[in-house]
Structures are given as C-alpha cells and as structure tokens.
C-alpha cells in the first residue's frame, strides 16, 4: 500500500475528549469547506438513488479516482451496487439507503473535504472507503462522531481513532504475516523499501514475522523515493538474496506505487542470477496489479502474496459476485479479486448488521456508533473472524486499540491468479504483541 504514515510507537487513548474533537474539527473545517467547493465534481449522489424518501438512511463512500497515483474506483462502485441491491430487497427494516460518494483526489485537502461533506450531509456512517490521509479526514469525523466503518487500512489512524471500526489489519498484519510465511522456505531475505521515515518502519514489521518463525532479520536495502528505474537496486537485491548457495533466497519489494517499476527491472536482471523467490503484500500487489503486468507471463508469477481475506475464487465470495452480476454487470471498475472491492463489501455487511440490530429505532451516526460499541458481533460468512470492537482491543498495548482482525491469508500467484497457499489464516496478534515497533 502506498503513502503509509509512520507506525506509532506509543499507544493513543481510545477516547478523544470533546474539546479535543472540536479543536481538531475546527482546524480543518474552513479548508474542507473551501475545498469541497473547488472539488465539487468529486462529491455526488449516485444517479437513481436521489429519489429516496425522507426516512432514507444516508451513507458515504470515498476513494481516490482518476489520479496519477493510487486509484480505487471499485470501492464506490461496489458501494453503489450494494446499495442498489439492498434497496431492491426493500431496504433494511423497510428503510432504503441513500449513497453519497466522494473523490479524495489523493490529497489531504480532498480527504478533508470529503469528511466535511459527510458532516454536512449528516450521513450515519462512512463505509468501505480508502484514503491515505487519516490525519485530515478523522478530525471532522471525530468532531461529528460519525463512524468510519471498514476503511482500507491505509493509515495508522484507522487503528487508533475511537470512531474507526476496521475490518482488516492493514499493512501491520500483512508484513508481519509475510515474514512468518517466508521464515521456513527462504534463505536470505532482502527487503527493498523507500529511504524515508515511513519506510523506516517496514523492516520492524517484516522482521517480527521472520523472527517468530526462527529466521534471521531481513537484509534492509534502501532505495531513494524518487527513482524512476531500479536496475542497480535489482542487482543488489539479487546479490543479497543469492548469498547462500544452499537455500533459495527471497526478495520483498515494498515500494508502493513504484513496486511495479522495480519488478519490471528485477524481472530482466534475475535471468543472470540463481533462482530466487519474490514476495509482497496485497497493499502493494493485488490481482489488479498482476493482471495489468502480464498475468502468468508477468513478474509476479510464483510470488507469495499476503492478503486479509480468502482468495477471490473461494465460494465465500459468491454472495458478493451475485450482487455484482445483478447490479453492476459490465462495470469494469469492479474486480471481485480487488482487495478494495472486497473490503467495501465486508464494510457494508457490518453496516447492515448494525442497522438490523437497531431495528425500528432511530438511525443516526450516534445510534450506529453505540450499536457497534455495545458488543455487536458481525458474522461475515467466514471472510473474516467474527468482528466486534471492544473498548480496548488485544493490540491496545502496542498502540492499536481498534485493530480487531489480525488474520492474514498467504497466497501465491499461479497461472496469473492468486491462489491460496495455506489451509487457514495466520493470526498475527501474538506476533504483533511481541514485536518491537518503537
């Protein structure tokens, strides 16, 4: 995943005092309101849903679209398909959903404007969304006490904010899980990562999993953030990974949006070296990336990939696929194998469970938040463990009080498709509890 914020070394309180919420919200309010005017095209109500009755339940989904960096158009598209499907079934407890979408344009100002739009529209929740700028959008949401359900896991704030209800473990679990998965099968492991403050946190996560599996720490190889080619870095990584002639080494590129560029250079360079394995996590490489880089003939064939959920071919995704087929047939923004699409599906299942629990009662941001806080357990049909959000999660002592799903699924690329490489998910809770993330 790209644009990571540095991993926090000390726990945050899971309660934000009211005066603190007001200060944070006010600090961004003026900027956000101005930005929403200039980015008006980025905020909208899905066509065909504006004729809802006055008692419609208004929700929002946001994600970056049509930018030069990370784009997740499948997330608002999946939200639209879900809302249309729910409404075609008569809504939830007889009340229909009304979806507002927003494009955060991969900018802090855009993220703040989307959050302010959520406040202005009086939505009951922001659901299944993606943004790299948690420090911008959580201030307005916390000020209005609007729950943020099922974010992609792109920022640390998603695992600390009291209004956040994550459905996965973000990069924290993926990298530590990748390390544990590689511990048994790899010789020397080389991590290629950005020479940046955010990049400085990555070796600790990968090493936590490697060491839990009895493996030595990874070789930490830095690369400048602004590189446009990685010929030298590819050669150096291969030299490090092949330094032990008795066991096949592994290379783990964690370069965000530049991972594909590295792998293109790496694919050419590896022909001159002994065989090595490659590995990544779904935040950097998912099925969409694999498809766009050649599939079975591309650089990721044979790679290990860690993800939060079962592979797309698993029957547990059949419900989602039926909704996509019924409500979004031919919409090429929605790839059922995309982790963002999958996260949005699960997030809306959480919202549905909360609204069903509320029943005929008042539906508001406060009532949704209270329902989630009061011990609601959400069954996602085996796509995740049963989800609930206690006052302090198991990883509160590590600084991530809201992280409740630490499961990681190990996958491998075969024939250009992600396929399961382990019979059951790895629970990374204890690994992260014992990890040195300072």
From TrEMBL:
Q: Which UniProt keywords apply?
A: Signal
Enumerate the InterPro entries for this protein: Leu-bd, Peripla_BP_I
Is Nucleotide-binding a UniProt keyword of this protein?
Answer: no
Write the signal peptide boundaries. 1-40
What's the domain of life for this entry? Bacteria
Whether Signal counts among this entry's keywords is: yes
Q: Which residues belong to any copy of the Leucine-binding protein domain?
A: 68-382
| A Pfam family recorded for this sequence | Peripla_BP_6
Similarity comment: family membership: Belongs to the leucine-binding protein family.
- What is the protein named? ABC transporter substrate-binding protein
Which species is listed as the source? Streptomyces hyaluromycini
């Amino acid at each position: 995943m790209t644009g990571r914020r540095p991993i926090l070394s000390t726990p945050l309180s899971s309660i934000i005092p009211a005066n603190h919420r007001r200060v944070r919200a006010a600090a961004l309010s003026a900027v956000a309101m101005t930005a929403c005017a200039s980015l008006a095209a980025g905020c909208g109500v899905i066509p065909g849903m504006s004729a809802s009755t006055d008692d419609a339940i208004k929700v929002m989904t946001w994600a970056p679209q049509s930018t030069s960096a990370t784009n997740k158009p499948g997330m608002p598209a999946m939200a639209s398909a879900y809302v249309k499907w729910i409404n075609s079934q008569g809504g939830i407890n007889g009340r229909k959903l009304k979806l507002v979408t927003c494009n955060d344009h991969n900018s802090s100002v855009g993220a703040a404007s989307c959050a302010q739009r959520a406040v202005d529209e009086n939505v009951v929740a922001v659901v299944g969304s993606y943004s790299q700028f948690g420090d911008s959008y959580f201030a307005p949401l916390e000020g209005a006490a609007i729950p943020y359900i099922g974010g992609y896991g792109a920022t640390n704030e998603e695992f600390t904010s009291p209004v956040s209800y994550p459905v996965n473990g973000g990069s924290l679990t993926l990298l530590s899980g990748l390390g544990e998965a590689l511990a048994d099968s790899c010789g020397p492991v080389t991590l290629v990562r950005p020479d940046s403050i955010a990049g400085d946190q990555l070796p600790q996560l990968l090493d936590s999993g490697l060491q839990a599996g009895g493996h030595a720490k990874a070789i930490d190889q830095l690369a400048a953030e602004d590189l446009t080619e990685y010929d030298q870095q590819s050669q150096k990584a291969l030299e490090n990974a092949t330094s032990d002639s008795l066991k096949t080494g592994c290379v783990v590129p964690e370069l965000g949006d530049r991972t594909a560029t590295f792998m293109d250079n790496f694919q050419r360079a590896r022909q001159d070296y002994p065989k090595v394995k490659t590995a990544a996590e779904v935040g950097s490489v998912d099925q969409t990336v694999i498809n766009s880089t050649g599939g079975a003939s591309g650089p990721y064939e044979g790679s290990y990939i860690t993800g939060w959920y079962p592979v797309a071919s698993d029957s547990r995704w059949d419900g989602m696929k039926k909704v996509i087929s019924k409500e979004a047939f031919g919409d090429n923004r929605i790839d059922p194998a995309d982790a963002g699409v999958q996260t949005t599906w699960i997030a809306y299942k959480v919202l549905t469970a909360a609204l069903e629990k509320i029943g005929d009662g008042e539906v508001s941001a406060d009532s949704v938040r209270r329902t989630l806080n009061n011990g609601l357990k959400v069954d996602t049909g085996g796509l995740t463990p049963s989800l609930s959000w206690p006052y302090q999660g198991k990883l509160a002592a590590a600084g991530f009080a809201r992280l409740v799903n630490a499961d990681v699924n190990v996958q491998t690329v075969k024939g250009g498709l992600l396929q399961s490489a382990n019979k059951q998910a790895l629970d990374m809770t204890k690994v992260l509890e014992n990890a040195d993330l300072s």
